[in-house]
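Re: the 280-residue chain
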Amino acid sequence: MKKHLMRKGCTIEFLQEAVFTDDERNTITELKKLYLETINLDVALQRDIYNMEKNYEERHNAIFEKRKKILEEFRKQSHGDSTPNENVSNFWLKVLKASYTEFISKKDEKILSHLIDVRSRLYNDPEVKFDIEFHFDKNEYFTNSVLKKTYFLNCLPDPKDPLSYDGAEIYKCEGCTIDWKTPKNCENSSDSGAPSFFNFFSPPSVPGDPEDDQFCDINAILQNDFELGFYLKERVIPKAVIFFTGEIADCQSSSESETENTDDDSDAEEEDESSNGTDK
């Protein structure tokens, strides 16, 4: 499933179109018609993929429901006693911390200790979108039992420029209102402006004018948001147990890999220099 952010107003400058003869232009026109046919096939294929994914969603949820019951049973047996971030009673908190710790403050951890399940839900009619749902036990922080974020996808080419189509695009997302029980609970939350995991549920709105100075900056923020939504849906939710155990660590793997590659390159360069010095 491709994911892109629409970048209206943040276009890249392309080289001017080469000069072609009339015969060449006619040939290119025919080739572009064929290319448009492949785009139409891609659109139909993407729709079929969404339909298939929706058909399998119920089966996935049956498995995830078993996972939820196992965790609920553990919490009942342990009577809620746990060591923060370590015990299975805090399963989803640790999963989220293993996935992207920069979003989670100490205050967030206390709230997320009440998180009992995370699910995704796909909709493919009348429009394609998906929800990320965070299910909570009753707690002293807010009255919501579920906090939800919705991502909307555009799966059709732009009628004015169909050849620019490059797969389905997330073009907007919507959060939800968190019904905090007291103003104090809003501190270090999405309502306070301080860094918090709960900012996830208050995404910025794209300015209506592409020429707005903040347009590209907000698009960049939303690009990260969209990637996070797909990451939750495609990796974190289904692979939660190995995030919990530490057998997968996506956030660190790329940086560690880059560091290792850099070290390897440095070692190789030193060996080459040493070898060259010996040969001289």
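The first helix runs from residue 22 to 78.
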